[in-house]
Design brief:
With 535 residues, this protein is an alpha/beta fold. The chain contains 20 helices and 15 strands. The structure holds pyridoxal-5'-phosphate and the ligand N[C@@H](CCOP(=O)(O)O)C(=O)O.
C-alpha cells in the first residue's frame, strides 16, 4: 500500500494549519502552544486483520506508519530502513512480546521494556532519533559549517523519556539534546542512565522543582520565538506527534499476539489497561482503536496523581488545583505528573465529535475554540469543566482507575506470589528459584487496575501494558519483595545496569533562581561550547 497524500496537521488551538509530517516532527509544539494532530484519523484497510496478522513487529510498524506518512514525503524503502534500524537495538526478537500473566483470568502483559533503556519510551524514541537524523541528513545535503541546519532538542523527564531520548540521539550529527529532570525525583538508576552518557551532544540539567516545572520550562522555551529562530528547538516528549504515532504499532502487535495465543477465548472482548501520566501511551491506543482496532475499552490507570481518574469521577472536571499539596511523590515516580499534556489532543477529538455543525471545517473551528478556552481556564483558574457530550464521548472509550501506593506494593507482591507466565523470554524478570514474575511499580499500577476491571468484566481479555523493567525501581521492588522466598534484587539487575551508578557522569544543576529564561541561557551557552568543540 502506498498512500499518495500526506496527512495534514493542525494545532489543537487553531493555528499552524496544513503542516506536513516533517514540519510537525521538527517543530514539536505548535507556535500557539497547542499540540499537533492529524486532520483525519485514517481507517484501516478492509483486509487488515488477515493481511497484518502474521507480520513481524517491523512489518506491522511499516503498515501503521504508512497510513500517516506519505511515500512522497518519506519513500517506502527509506521508512522501512528507519524502522529496521530503530528496532534492531531491541533485546527480544518479537520487540514487544505478550506474556500470559494469569491465563485463568484472561490477563496478559505487554512487555514494552526490551529496548536499550528498559522502558516503553524506547519504542518511539529509537524511531524518533532516526527520524530526526533522516530529516537532518536530507536538509543538510551539500551544506557546510554555519549553513547546516542544527537541531536543539529539549525535553523534560520524570525518569524514562530522558534516557530513551538520549539513547536515541547520542552522537548524532547536527543535533544537541537537553534533558531537564527534577532533582532527587528520578530513581538513581534512571539518573545514571542519563548522566553517564558523555557524548558531546548530550546535556543533562537537574532542576530544583517537579516534573511539571520541567515540562512548563520546556513549553516556555518552545514559545520563545527568539530561541526558536536561532536554535531550531525540537521536542522529544510526547507533545511530539511522532511519539504517539510510533506507539500505535504495539497495540496492533499485542492484539494479534493475543488472538493467536492458545489460551485466548475466541470472541472475548479485548481491553487495554495503561499506566498513565502524560497520557501519551494510552492516546496511541485510542488512535489505534479509532482507526478500527477492536478494543472494547481503554482503561486509564493512574497512581495517586489522579487528575485523569478524577476527570471521570467528577463529571468532567479537569482540575490541577483539586489535588491538595500539588504533585505527590509515589512509588511510581515516572507517573508523578499533575497535568497530562496529551489529554488536550483527546479533548480536541471529543469536542469535534460532539459538535453538531454540518461541515468538518466548522467542527474543527469549534473544537479549536473549545480547547483554547479550556486550556486558558486551566492556566488562569486551575481547572475547567467539559460539556456532558464531551464527557459521554470519553466514557464510551475509556474507564479509569486510581491505584494507591499501598495497592502498588501489594500488587508487586501478589503478582510475584501467584503469576508464573509459561511463555517468558530471557529479558523478563522472574525469580530463578520460584519462577515468580517481577513487575515494576508502574506496571503494578496497571495490573492492579486490570484486576479491578476483570472483576467487573470477567469474560473480557485484558492486555495490561508493562511500561518498564523492575530493575529501574529498586526501592519499590525491594520494599514489596525483600521478605519473599526466592527473591534477590541483584538477580533482577540486567548486565547493562551493573556498576552504572559508579561511572563518570556529567550534569548541570539549575537551582535557586529557576526560570525558563535561566535555562534558555544555559542552553545557548552549552550549544555554543559544543559547536566550538569545547566539551
Ligand atoms: C514507566 C512508565 N510508565 C508509565 C508512564 C506513563 O506514560 P504516559 O506519560 O504516556 O501516560 C511513564 C511516563 O511517561 C513511564 O515512564
Ligand atoms: N513519564 C515520563 C514523563 C514525560 O512524558 P512524555 O511521555 O511526555 O515524554 C518520563 O519518564 O519522563
Amino acid at each position: 500500500m502506498s498512500p499518495t497524500l500526506s496527512q495534514k496537521y493542525l494545532s489543537t488551538r487553531g493555528g499552524s494549519y496544513g503542516l506536513s509530517f516533517e514540519d510537525v516532527v521538527l517543530k514539536g509544539l505548535a507556535s500557539d502552544g497547542g499540540l499537533f494532530i492529524p486532520e483525519e484519523i485514517p481507517a484501516l484497510p478492509s483486509n487488515w486483520e488477515t493481511e497484518w496478522r502474521d507480520l513481524s513487529f517491523e512489518e506491522l510498524a511499516f503498515q501503521v506508519l504508512s497510513l500517516y506518512i506519505s511515500s512522497a514525503e518519506i519513500p517506502s524503502e527509506d521508512l522501512k530502513d528507519i524502522i529496521r534500524r530503530s528496532y534492531s537495538t531491541f533485546r527480544h526478537a518479537e520487540r514487544t512480546p505478550v506474556v500470559e500473566l494469569d491465563p485463568k483470568r484472561n490477563l496478559y502483559l505487554l512487555e514494552l521494556f526490551m529496548g536499550p533503556t528498559f522502558a516503553f519510551k524506547d519504542v518511539a524514541l529509537q524511531f524518533l532519533g532516526n527520524l530526526f537524523e533522516y530529516f537532518l541528513v536530507r536538509k543538510n545535503q551539500g551544506k557546510e559549517g554555519k549553513d547546516r541546519h542544527h537541531l536543539t532538542v529539549i525535553g523534560a523527564t520524570s525518569g524514562d523519556t530522558g534516557s530513551a531520548a538520549i539513547y536515541g540521539l547520542r552522537g548524532k550529527k547536527d543535533v544537541s539534546i537537553f534533558i531537564l529532570f527534577p532533582t532527587g525525583k528520578v530513581s538513581p538508576i534512571q539518573q545514571a542512565q542519563m548522566t553517564t552518557v558523555l557524548d558531546a551532544n548530550v546535556h543533562n540539567l537537574t532542576v530544583e522543582g517537579s516534573f511539571d516545572d520541567c515540562q512548563d520550562i520546556v513549553k516556555a522555551l518552545f514559545a520563545d520565538a527568539d530561541l526558536n529562530s536561532t536554535h531550531n528547538v525540537a521536542a522529544v516528549n510526547s507533545i511530539n506527534w511522532a511519539r504517539i504515532l510510533a506507539q500505535m504499532t504495539y497495540y496492533f502487535y499485542a492484539y494479534f499476539s493475543l488472538i493467536k495465543s492458545p489460551s485466548y477465548k475466541a470472541g472475548s472482548p479485548v481491553r487495554f489497561v495503561v499506566p498513565s501520566g502524560n497520557f501519551g501511551d494510552i492516546l496511541a491506543g485510542w488512535f489505534a482503536k479509532s482507526m478500527g482496532l477492536p478494543a472494547e475499552k481503554l482503561v486509564i490507570a493512574t497512581n495517586e496523581n489522579d487528575i485523569l481518574d478524577r476527570f471521570f469521577r467528577t463529571n468532567g472536571q479537569y482540575s490541577k488545583t483539586a489535588q491538595a499539596g500539588g504533585v505527590k511523590e509515589t512509588h511510581s515516580p515516572a507517573m508523578d505528573i499533575l497535568v497530562s499534556s496529551n489529554f488536550e489532543r483527546l479533548l480536541w477529538f471529543l469536542a469535534f465529535q460532539a459538535d453538531g455543525s454540518s461541515s468538518a471545517e466548522e467542527k474543527r473551528k469549534h473544537a479549536c475554540e473549545a480547547v483554547s478556552g479550556w486550556l486558558t481556564q486551566l492556566k488562569t483558574s486551575g481547572s475547567f469543566n467539559v460539556s456532558e457530550a464531551v464527557l459521554n464521548g470519553a466514557k464510551v472509550e475509556f474507564e479509569s482507575e486510581r491505584v494507591s501506593d499501598e495497592d502498588t506494593i501489594e500488587t508487586i507482591r501478589s503478582t510475584y506470589r501467584s503469576c508464573f507466565p509459561p511463555n517468558l523470554g530471557p529479558g523478563s524478570a522472574k525469580s530463578s528459584k520460584t519462577g515468580g514474575y517481577i513487575v515494576d511499580p508502574h506496571t503494578a499500577v496497571g495490573v492492579a487496575a486490570s484486576l479491578r476491571s476483570i472483576q467487573r468484566n470477567p469474560a473480557a481479555s485484558h492486555i495490561s501494558l508493562s511500561t518498564a523493567h523492575p530493575a529501574k525501581f529498586a526501592s519499590a521492588v525491594d520494599l514489596a519483595l525483600r521478605d519473599e522466598d526466592g527473591y534477590s534484587f541483584p538477580e533482577v539487575l540486567p548486565q547493562e545496569f551493573v556498576g552504572l551508578e559508579q561511572r563518570e557522569s556529567r550534569v548541570t544543576p539549575v537551582s535557586g533562581n529557576v526560570s525558563w529564561e535561566v535555562v534558555r541561557e544555559i542552553v545557548k551557552a552549552e550549544v555554543e561550547q559544543e559547536l566550538q568543540g569545547l566539551r
